[in-house]
Design a protein that fits this description.
The complex is a heterodimer of chains A (369) and B (429). In chain A, 70% of the residues lie in helices and 4% in strands. Chain A has 369 residues and is mainly alpha-helical. Chain A has one domain: ABC transporter involved in vitamin B12 uptake, BtuC (Orthogonal Bundle), CATH 1.10.3470. In chain A, a hairpin with a 2-residue loop joins strand 1 and strand 2. Chain A is globular, with a radius of gyration of 22 Å. Chain B is of the alpha/beta class. In chain B, helix 9 links the parallel strand 7 and strand 8. In chain B, helix 3 runs parallel beside helix 4 and helix 12 packs across helix 13. Chain B is globular, with a radius of gyration of 21 Å. The termini of chain B are far apart. Classes of the chains: A mainly alpha (369), B alpha/beta (429). Chain A: One of its GO terms (cellular component) is plasma membrane. Chain A: Its main location: membrane. Chain A: GO terms for molecular function: branched-chain amino acid transmembrane transporter activity.
């Protein structure tokens, strides 16, 4: 009944090639956008934004980025936390005005608008990502994972050590000063809930849309060809150097933007070892695996699962049942862990596969014969 | 999506919260994670003092106290969630017990008009109340600690430590980096050599740092550690047979949990403190009678009298006294966070008052003023006796080197004001 292609005629290639070819899908997509842009901003307060929506949106960007690399191009990466740190520190330098010392003379750019700082931070991270992606041309699988793990530890060490990156502050912390777009602050303490939410939402929508179309197009097909069998891909004319490095560049661009937003809009003050440690790399990798490798929807689902579940459990156990906080915190680990394990046993391809199955069922429902 | 809706519905139901007639305090505690060993006693002490006030006195000024505990796991993201979820319930003051979370809360809480009390941690230059209007860090801060440690070394060496070598083993984070600038300034003044040895979170791996200490044989080692890092460092120091009386930790590196794993070897280890140790105070009788015996003790109830429990107790006492001061200043029992801020700024802790509270000579007496949110910077040195398993103060309370710290605090707070475009408004007369 739902999701049926029957009767959904396409009379041009443009129609046939659109992002959501099935009409029901398209309507659903527009409905979600409408709710996200026109309804939620009026309903949320700072708790909803800071505890749920901002982490969800930002982790969704990071998960999409990692999914491009791991899910589409098949290159394993454990450096996500480090690349997020690059994005965060680059964004900090751009938003406070980059300074360079040459022969004792200081040259400084004026502070750049936060929107463009975030995008530039993405480009810086893309460059760093390509550098650390170079080993992928020689090594694969677990060995590549170890190489990217080195990136994770190196980058965290670098941002702890390199005083220029944190503007020589005594504590080594970076703090986001107040910056805004169109005169409305989106970073710093005096932000409105809806402003930070919309700022991140714009990035999520644009980036998810680009990712969806990149992965459907020739670039994405090359990535998938490399993922499925790199020798065969090379024989049919896919350049592995370009395919792998573009995957690293695009993935790091996304992860860098996630890091920049994570620091500037969400947390406001960041300490590299604590915020961008190895745990962050694993967290995003879990989101991708639980959500489903090679799926944009899966990235959202995985991010939602791992961001919302702990908050939900905490609210139920501590707020609802009044249990001691330590007991609840320990139970939370156990419940989330158990759910992940059961879930992956029952559906190894993640939430995205579950969604696909539901869609198949809905197509025939209510007459499954 | 269903999950999100469920969360929305649930959260909306929960956000309604309890009535605001009570005085709401929050405890952003951590009873889990690599820092739990230190987080638990502090949280227990903090909670027990408020339970005591509720049970014995019926709250503060006739208003019952509602303590909301929120688990942060020493993690800044969870800290943000805790702050956002509790601030709507009328929290009067935040004490996150984490330098990272404090940095996060400084701008947020200032914008929301809620005071933060980072007692002996957080951003040192918050002492300058004309810039950091809502942030308090009395009675002492890290730079005081660094200066007191050096003062102690001066006392040991007859006032001259020229040419001595001092190593700083520190948690490689905002917390551990805090004292470096002060120690460098003091090195210029007193002529000792400072070497820096960072230890990465969580600090379980310190072999290379202690190998370096073994090779270079510094005369003294200072430590800015927390959680499991302390235990490992003290064990490593024992392993390389570093003389324990030359090893001095900051007040966060001086609890029973830190020294006990090293057994006899830790005997003689020193740590700074800004309050007294032990349970030989009248207030502990009250705690036993009203809190422990009635089964209302927080946690497992096995931490009473430990160093960090006492610190939690002390923090709660200062918060309660500030609330009382605010009630007197504003003539109302149900105070708001803004009034609480005024109470903290008007706080004066005297020996007489501490005796009245059953805590004679528990901490230094000090007065908070509008320009000085940090107290007078008094601290003492305590030493661990492994045989009797107890800490004891081996010096009097001494004041930090205000001539060196004053300009540093001024410079750092002005840098913060410039960075955030705060003009030093005429808050203070």
């Amino acid at each position: 009944m739902l999701y049926r292609e029957a009767g959904d005629y396409k009379t041009s290639y443009v129609d046939d090639g659109q992002s959501f070819p099935i009409k029901f899908d398209r309507i659903g997509f527009y409905a979600v956008l409408l709710v996200a842009f026109a309804v939620i901003p009026f309903l949320i307060n700072s708790y909803w934004v800071n505890a749920i929506f901002l982490p969800f949106l930002i982790y969704a960007i990071a998960a999409i980025g990692l999914n491009i690399l791991v899910g589409y191009a098949g290159q394993v990466s454990l450096g996500t936390g480090g690349f997020m740190a690059v994005g965060a520190y680059a964004c900090y330098k751009f938003m406070t005005g980059i300074d360079i010392w040459i022969d004792g003379v200081q040259y400084a750019l004026p502070p750049i608008n936060i929107f463009f700082s975030v995008i530039l931070a993405g480009f810086v991270t893309a460059f760093v990502g390509v550098l650390f992606g170079l080993p992928s041309l020689r090594i694969k699988g677990f060995y590549l994972a170890v190489a990217t793990l080195a990136a994770q530890f190196f980058l965290v060490w670098l941002f702890n050590k390199w005083e220029w990156a944190y503007n020589y502050s005594a504590s080594g912390q970076i703090n986001a000063p107040e910056r805004g777009v169109f005169g409305i602050p989106v970073t710093g303490p005096a932000t409105e809930a809806w402003a930070t939410y919309l700022f991140c939402l714009v990035f999520v929508v644009i980036l998810a849309f680009i990712a969806r179309n990149l992965t459907r197009g020739s670039v994405g097909r090359k990535w998938m060809a490399i993922r499925d069998m790199d020798i065969a891909a090379e024989i049919i004319g896919v350049n592995p150097l370009r395919a792998k490095l573009t995957a690293f560049a695009v993935s790091s661009f996304y992860v860098g933007i996630a890091g920049a937003l994570f620091f500037s809009v969400y947390l406001g003050a960041v300490e590299v070892g604590e915020a961008f440690g190895i745990q962050k790399s694993f967290l995003v990798l879990f989101m991708v695996i639980i959500g489903g490798l090679g799926s944009i929807f899966g990235s959202f689902a995985g991010a939602a699962f791992l961001v919302l579940l702990p908050v939900l459990l905490k609210n139920v156990l501590v707020g609802g049942l009044g249990w001691p906080t330590d007991l609840a915190a320990h139970l939370e680990f156990m419940i989330v862990g158990a759910l992940i394990v059961t879930f992956l046993i029952l559906e190894p391809h993640g939430l995205a596969q579950l969604w696909r199955v539901i869609k198949e069922k809905l197509r025939l429902w209510p007459f499954p014969h | 999506m269903n999950m999100k809706l469920a969360t929305l519905a649930l959260g909306a139901a929960l956000a309604a919260g309890p009535a605001l007639a009570e005085l709401t305090f929050t405890s952003l505690s951590y009873r889990t994670g690599p820092y739990a060993a230190n987080g638990i006693p502090f949280a227990d002490g903090y909670a027990d003092y408020f339970t005591l006030l509720n049970e014995r006195d019926g709250g503060i000024g006739g208003e019952k106290i509602n303590l909301i505990e929120c688990e942060t796991g020493y993690n800044t993201e969870k800290g943000v969630e805790c702050y956002e979820s509790t601030k709507g319930q009328g929290a009067l003051v935040y004490q996150p017990l984490s330098t990272g979370i404090t940095y996060q809360l400084i701008p947020k809480a200032t914008a929301d008009g809620i005071p933060v009390h980072s007692m002996g941690y957080g951003r040192t230059s918050a002492k300058n109340g004309s810039v950091f209007r809502n942030i308090f860090n009395y009675p002492a801060n890290y730079w005081d600690g660094a200066s007191i440690a050096i003062k102690h070394l001066l006392d040991l060496n007859g006032g001259d430590i020229n040419g001595k070598r001092v190593a700083l083993v520190y948690h490689n984070s905002a917390y551990g980096k805090e004292p470096i600038r002060t120690l460098e300034e003091l090195a210029k003044k007193h002529g000792y050599e400072l070497s820096l040895l960072p230890v990465d979170h969580p600090g379980q791996e310190q072999k290379s740092q202690w190998l370096q200490i073994r090779r270079e044989r510094p005369d003294y080692v200072l430590m800015w550690g927390w959680g499991v890092m302390n235990q490992v460092a003290i064990q490593e120091a024992v392993n390389i047979r570093f003389p324990m009386e030359n090893f001095i930790g900051i007040w966060w590196s001086g609890s029973e949990n830190d020294v006990k794993p090293a057994g006899e070897g830790a005997n003689g280890y020193k740590a700074l403190t800004f309050h007294n140790v032990g349970s030989d105070y009248p207030i502990f009788d009250d705690i036993k009678k009203h809190v422990v015996d009635t089964g209302k003790a927080a946690g497992a109830g096995d931490q009473i009298g430990t160093v960090l429990y006492n610190r939690g107790l002390y923090a709660a006492m200062l918060a309660a006294e500030a609330a009382r001061t605010a009630q007197e200043l504003h003539g109302t029992a149900a105070i708001t966070p803004a009034q609480m801020r005024d109470g903290m700024e008007g706080l004066s802790i005297t020996e007489a008052r501490m005796t009245e509270l059953g805590m004679p000579d528990f901490g230094p007496s000090f007065t908070v003023t509008c320009t000085n949110h940090g107290g007078d910077g008094y601290g003492a040195v305590s030493q661990w006796d492994a045989k009797s398993g107890s800490w004891s103060l081996i010096t009097d309370y001494m004041q930090s080197d205000q001539d060196v710290l004053g300009p540093l605090i001024k410079a750092d707070s002005e840098a913060y004001a410039a960075e955030n475009k705060l003009e030093e408004k005429k808050f203070c007369p």
